[in-house]
Amino acid sequence: MRIRTERDSCISSGACVLEAPQVFDQDEDGVVVLLQESPAPDVADAARNAMMACPAAVITIDEDT
Amino acid sequence: MADPRHILVVGGSAAGLSTAEALRRFGFDGALTVLEAEAGGPYDRPPLSKQVLDGSWAPERAALFPAERLARIGFGHLTGVRAVSLDRRRRVVRTDVAGDLTYDELVIATGVAPRRLAGDRLPGVHVLRTMADALRLREDLLRGGRLLVVGAGFVGLEAAASARRLGLAVTVVDPDPRPLAGRLGPVVAGRLLGLHAGHGVELRLGVGVRRITRWGGRPDGLDLSDGAHLEGSAVLVAIGCRPVVDWVAGSGLDVGDGVRCDARCQAAPGVWAVGDVARWHHDGFGRSMRIEHRQHATEQAQVVARNILGAGVAFTPTPYFWTDHFDVRVQVAGFVPADATLRPVDGDIAGGRFVALAEHGGRVAGVVAWNSAKAFTAHRRLVPAFAARAAAGAPSRPRYGNEEQS
What we know:
The complex is a heterodimer. Chain A is α+β, with helices and mostly antiparallel strands.
């Protein structure tokens, strides 16, 4: 699994941090910060939840790498 | 139906597509069809009144889901096809150009459409809901002049800010003397209106619109209820939306204000509703609700998908929205009732950034933030977490009001 974020389109909802705090954080402006590009298996499902919860759809997960 | 073979989603915007994606994620491997009345690819709506209108984004950037994410779902995508009626007994949706579609489970995700004013259908009078609406309005704004906005809600004010960015004169009219006080509380609503005034937006509050005046087939102003006349070159009617339920009107479903559903977002056997169009029973608040926020569409989609596949969970979200104006982003989780007490927990309510709790009846009813997104996330957890309770299997009962917080 490999995660990408489009920081330029992030609307700083924090939904990803609420879903997967091990994988996502926010900078001082609230913009998403990716903590783990290839998250550990035990937080992979939380990362998927974050992708689906993001109201700006700026998180993309490539499951094949 | 525990093991549906064909799931039909009517409405291919955020709620419908998120439901399709969630169905796959939660293991549905049968046939999946998404019907969308608009032709062209799916797009996200929040940027329409902001970046698309002011031109800081090309329209393509508002595309909903990167292409590979959309392709990964694996579904039949019928675009430019409108559902015209529903026969629940035969489980058939009749369409305008694609014939009759049968289903085992139906998801209604047809969203909402803008309310209109009588006589407002002429070039130069706009609503703002679709990409085409936004591009038409933008084209008009690029001619300059004065934009007259009817309605000081979030869409009307975001569009007003975008028009100011483009250099237009802007007047906003609303019959409510204190618009948004019921959404942000009077203090924050007042600050937001003050922000607009400080950026040159003329506000005419507490006065209604009698009619749109015209000259040469285009609008040239508004007659107001106090007898005044405003001159302008374009009009945006932003007075809220109504659920798109005309196509299910004859089906026997309750569609008084949205498709009426139970706590699990089910309207009837084999019929579900999601997103702006759904009125469901929120077990946490103990009443039926319909929410038009963007976040809501994705959250409800997860629950609807799980329930179609048999999970049987109640949908009990804490509502969340954001809204952008000039250089300010306002975020709210929960509710900020007009008579709530605001208690700042970060920054100063009169300052450039703050987070405040909205206390109501001795409880935290919501959190509101002004340019404080990171601190907002930290304090958002203080709003009662109905979703977490439901996921943990806690008994569902009303927890909003005057109860003690456990």
